[in-house]
């Protein structure tokens, strides 16, 4: 069985970089080693599918790839024939609902886990690649039939993870407090907080933290841990 090949970005836009630029090398490594020439883009997280597609096409054309929008034809047929997937950011609830409504969630899961088709996700596209979308930061603007997601990995991620500002007078709950509250619920597992510019590479049963910054890991019953870029996080597949 081909090994899964998944690259999950905390975000597509990072200060000081153009769209997707900070992860350019990792993205190209993922696609080039698989001889990908055409990427199937899933724009469901935003309302303007065509405008979103144009933005993505412009970037990937510079890198030598053609991009097709899953919304341009039969979504299931497009997913079944895709050489690679890119699921973009936006609203996670909207994205997951459209994946269910268009009947492509299980197709994408099968293509990635069984056929080894590369999957690139950013922000909301990273959220839906995990066990569930319970740890998204987005507003629930629509109601998907389930919070269970594609489950390319058996844990949760919090993209755009932010640390508390020690100089702030804001007294609301921090991102860490929100995650810890989620983990008070029975059955809640690990949550990896991906700061802006962090990426996670999953190759078969190996997980490597990549990108620009450390990430913070929350495991129920344990103190949160910091992991440096380059860290091996493969143990998360078995926690």
Automatic annotation (TrEMBL):
It is found in: Cytoplasm. It catalyses: Dipeptidase E catalyzes the hydrolysis of dipeptides Asp-|-Xaa. It does not act on peptides with N-terminal Glu, Asn or Gln, nor does it cleave isoaspartyl peptides. One of its GO terms (molecular function) is serine-type peptidase activity. Its EC number is 3.4.13.21. Keywords: Cytoplasm, Dipeptidase, Hydrolase, Protease, Serine protease. One of its GO terms (cellular component) is cytoplasm. It is an enzyme of class 3 (hydrolase). InterPro entries: Class_I_gatase-like (IPR029062), Peptidase_S51 (IPR005320). Its main location: cytoplasm. Transmembrane segments: none annotated. SUPFAM superfamilies: Class I glutamine amidotransferase-like. One of its GO terms (biological process) is proteolysis. Pfam families: Peptidase_S51. CDD domains: GAT1_Peptidase_E. Hydrolyzes dipeptides containing N-terminal aspartate residues. Belongs to the peptidase S51 family. This is dipeptidase E. It comes from Ignelater luminosus.
């Amino acid at each position: 069985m081909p090994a899964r090949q998944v690259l999950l970005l905390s975000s597509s836009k990072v200060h000081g970089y153009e769209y997707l630029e900070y992860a350019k090398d990792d993205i190209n490594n993922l696609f080039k080693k698989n001889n990908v020439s055409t990427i199937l883009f899933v724009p469901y997280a935003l309302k303007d599918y065509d405008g979103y597609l144009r933005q993505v096409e412009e970037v990937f054309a510079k890198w030598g790839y053609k991009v097709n929008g899953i919304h341009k034809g039969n979504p299931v047929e497009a997913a079944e024939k895709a050489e690679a997937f890119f699921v973009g950011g936006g609203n996670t609830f909207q994205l997951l609902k459209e994946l269910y409504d268009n009947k492509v969630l299980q197709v994408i899961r099968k293509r990635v886990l069984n056929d080894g088709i590369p999957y690139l996700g950013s922000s909301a596209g990273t959220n839906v690649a995990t066990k569930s979308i319970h740890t998204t930061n987005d507003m629930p603007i629509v109601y998907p039939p389930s919070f269970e997601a594609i489950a390319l990995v058996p844990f949760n991620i919090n993209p755009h993870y932010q640390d508390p500002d020690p100089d702030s007078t804001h007294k609301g709950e921090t991102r860490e407090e929100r995650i810890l509250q989620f983990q008070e619920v029975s059955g809640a597992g690990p949550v990896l907080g991906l700061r802006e510019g962090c990426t996670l590479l999953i190759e078969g049963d190996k997980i490597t933290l990549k990108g620009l910054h450390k990430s913070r890991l929350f495991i129920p019953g344990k103190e949160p841990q910091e992991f440096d870029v380059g860290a091996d996080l493969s143990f998360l597949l078995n926690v």
